[in-house]
Design a protein that fits this description.
By secondary structure, this protein is of the alpha/beta class. The chain is about 40% helix and about 20% strand. The longest helix is centred in the C-terminal third of the chain and has 24 residues, at about 245-265. The chain binds zinc ion. Zinc ion binds near residues 190, 192 and 197.
Length: about 325
């Protein structure tokens, strides 16, 4: 695998070398300026609206230039710019269809090239970016084969084997959320158009659905839920001793443990990292998730550890900066 600490002629020449890690959201970007070893120098959030057209690109370039300036650097010090996008990116860095945001990747690239002429640009899928971030600076530091599972509105995955990300030939590598865990036709319909995907049972939305399902089965009134993805309310109910919440979390762990056991038959990673909003309550279900995984996996894989992520929402920012630095030959 690539060395984690960059040792490179370009760095030695340019002592202020730094990288931008940019989280591209639907209506804003969140950016961090990092040193080549991953120390954060400054961060900024830039509201963008739709990321199409010159006006939006200009706003982004200005916001980023301000960030670089605040950190006492100049545009030429920026040697790498990584962008984290919520959609597929193939192994050549091409951005595929983005379902949830409006973004013109080519236009944005051109604007960033103008603003930071020395920088290598890299796009990375958000779940993969988070995995790379954890590899560089988080829970997976020093672990060269691991799989990250992000439990949020949906379920994302990032696969790292031998220190390298596995994006897949078509950008669909690590789409663990769409593993079939309930047989076709019997499972819940998924946003991908198939049935019984893990995402329908282990995301925040999935957990809320399981909770409501348990309440209906037992004729219990559910606790107040603020919205369809209010997994925190289900975890609070579990803490308060709610039997339906307890059963729902167990069913979530059963599906997730089963899915991870299938992944192990192919990758056999040393570690699974659990991240995303649902991971905030990791301690509440860590034991049952491990038990479910071990009940389903092949014997040799039972030594696999299941750990929480440590970088939270910043993982993507670190990960894209790392990938861009790596493509620039600096990490
Ligand atoms: Zn699906």
């Amino acid at each position: 695998m690539a060395a984690l600490e960059p040792v490179c002629a370009a760095c030695a020449k340019r002592e202020n070398a730094c990288a931008l890690g940019i989280d591209v959201g639907g209506t804003s970007i969140k950016a961090g300026l990092l040193t080549c070893t991953g120390e954060v120098l400054a961060t900024a959030k830039v509201p963008t609206g739709r990321i199409v057209g010159q006006e939006a690109f200009k706003k982004i370039a200005q916001g980023l230039s301000g960030l670089v300036e605040r950190a006492g650097r100049v545009a030429e010090d920026v040697v790498a710019v990584g962008l984290d996008v919520p959609g597929p990116v193939d192994d050549r860095g091409n951005v595929g269809m983005l379902a949830n945001i409006e973004l013109d990747p080519d236009g944005l690239c051109m604007a960033l090239r103008d603003a930071f002429p020395e920088a290598t640009l890299a796009f990375v899928n958000d779940a993969n970016a988070a995995a790379l971030g954890e590899l560089w600076r988080g829970s997976a530091k020093g672990v060269d084969s691991f799989v990250m599972v992000t439990l949020g509105t949906g379920v994302g995955g990032g696969v790292v084997v031998g220190g390298r990300l596995v994006p897949g030939a078509f950008g669909a590598g690590g789409e663990i959320g769409h593993m079939t865990v309930v047989k076709e036709g019997e499972g819940r319909t998924c946003g991908c158009g198939r049935h019984g995907c893990l995402e329908q049972y282990a995301s925040a939305k999935g957990l809320v659905w399981l909770y409501r399902d348990e309440c209906a089965r037992r004729s219990c009134a559910p606790v107040a839920l603020a919205h369809e993805t209010d997994a925190l309310a289900v975890f609070d109910a579990l803490r308060a001793g709610d039997a339906c919440a307890d059963a729902a979390v167990s069913r979530m762990c059963e599906h997730l443990g089963y899915a991870l056991a299938q992944v192990s038959t192919i990758i056999d990673p040393a570690v699974y990292l659990v991240g995303g909003g649902v991971a905030g309550a990791f301690d509440l279900y860590a034991e049952r998730l491990s038990a479910s995984f071990r009940a389903h996996c092949l014997a040799p894989s039972s030594a696999t550890r299941i750990l929480p992520c440590s970088l939270g929402n910043d993982a993507g920012m670190y990960g894209v900066a790392y990938e861009a630095l790596r493509q620039a030959g600096l990490a």
